[in-house]
Amino acid sequence: MVARVVIITAVAFLVFRWWSALRTAPGPAVPAKTTGSPVELKTVSYAGRQYAYSLFRVAEPSGLELIVNPSDTEGVALVREYGCIYATNAGYYDTADRPLGLWMSGGETVYPHIQSQFLNAYIWIDKAGSTGITRDLPNLSFQTILQTGPLLWEDGQIVHLSIKDDKHARRVIAFHDRQALWFAIIYDPESRFDGPLLKDLPAVLGLVTTSEGLNVLSAINLDGGSASFFKTPHFHLNEFRRIGGLFCYR
Hints:
Blueprint: E1 5-8, H1 14-23, E2 42-46, E3 49-58, E4 64-68, H2 75-82, E5 86-89, E6 103-105, E7 108-111, E8 121-126, E9 131-134, E10 142-148, E11 151-154, E12 157-158, E13 160-163, E14 171-176, E15 181-187, H3 201-211, E16 218-221, E17 230-232, E18 235-237, E19 245-249
Parallel strand pairs: 1-13
Antiparallel strand pairs: 2-3, 3-15, 4-19, 5-17, 5-19, 6-7, 6-10, 8-9, 8-10, 11-12, 11-16, 14-15, 14-16, 17-18
């Protein structure tokens, strides 16, 4: 199958690119925090750079909730409030701190769909418990939807990205293998708000999943850089700037 090509233009998403660049400016390097038993740092190398990563599997989709962060509540506080065992930041938000794009939680639409070349696909869970990452929404009854992007893998193939003003930044990804939905964070272990260029992210994710013995069917980018947050029982990386929402898995 021919790999798909996505071209992001500055004109198509001018306001978004300005706000995203502001929030992904490098913050101070802070250590990854661990709890419980020591966790071995997992790494892959791409284009002469080393990247660390962590990931978790959503074994039971009914345990995954999409939570809006309407204030400046820190990710760790949201985790405590909602009892999350695993958690990661969700999608992008605008200058008024409202999520950008379609956002459905508990079967209720919280924010509407927007037309965007960048936020070009969806993470979804239907009411039967099926999950997906697709460019278009299937005709199903949904429990959860997040519009985000860009799409990184589709139908088992890398999506080639052309990004203007691309920068190295920590990246959070949702991906689907043949059995389940996964979330991952990829970052520079020496400067933990840095990470791959967005255009390189599909290839770097391919290295990560190959290392883990997984086959990617579809994958999508979430918010990243200084507005990213990731937590497992033995590892977490805090945000530097506010996150717009949280995927909370119990």
